Amino acid sequence: MNENQVMALAAMCQVAKQVQKIAQYGSSNDYELEKLLNSIVETSPETPSDVYQGTENLRDGYKSLLNQLSAGEKKDVEIVKYVGGLMQLERALSAKASSLAELGKGIEDVKRRLDHFAITDDTVIAALADIYSKVLSPLGHRIQVYGKPDLLKQQLVQHKIRALLLAGIRSAVLWRQMGGKRRHFFFAKRKIIAIAKNHI
Fold first, then answer.
1. How far is 174 from 171, CA to CA, in rounded Å?
2. What is the pLDDT at residue 1?
3. Residues whose CB falls within 8 Å of the CB of residue 48, separated by 6 or more in sequence, listed in order
4. Which of 57, 74, 95, 199 could cysteine-pair with 35, CB 3.0–4.6 Å?
5. Which tens digits make up the pLDDT trace of 124-156?
């Protein structure tokens, strides 16, 4: 287990926390939203931490990861389900070359929009959400989102959640690229905790 694997896990936890906030309260931390969405278009980073413009932007994610793994802490089942769902969906994506190609094309289209709009602009968020709907939803591993039904019916809320889940997939890709495996949760728990503690 290494720093980069734990960073990718923390990023998935941070995505899950943001999805949770939007689904339950309808609002999100715009600074965190911006950092997470930027990770989607950071396709050629010099170092893994460049995906998030530095690990300091993932402090909440590291805290959340620590809470999930520390004995005696109240575990958040939703966060566990979201992170597990992202990993499952990413595995389905990585097995399908045509979907990967479509994803890459969609992200390049969004990058061109960023010449004129901020990544948190509603039109860009809608475009990211559209990529998620067209490329990832058909793969069949649907991520169940828990929240207030009246909020989940709102289009902007739906768009933000799908755009964030796309950011979660970006982190799941990084997790796999860095050699992350599901068994690490069971056999490298103490190592994960030790690394996460250094970032909060």
1. 5
2. 84
3. 4, 7, 8, 174, 178
4. 57
5. 999 999 999 999 999 988 899 999 999 999 999
Q: Residue 144: CA atoms inside 13 Å, Cβ hemisphere, count?
A: 5
With a CB cutoff of 8 Å and minimum separation 6, the contacts of 190 are none
Reading the block at residue 183, the tokens are: 């068994």
pLDDT band for 187, please (50, 70, 90 cuts). Answer: confident
Side-chain-side CA neighbours of 106 within 13 Å: the count stands at: 22
Does the pLDDT at position 73 exceed 70? no
Cα(88)–Cα(98) distance, integer angstroms: 18
CA distance 62 to 6: 8
What's the Cα-to-Cα distance from 23 to each of 117, 140, 144, 165, rounded to whole Å? 25, 21, 11, 12
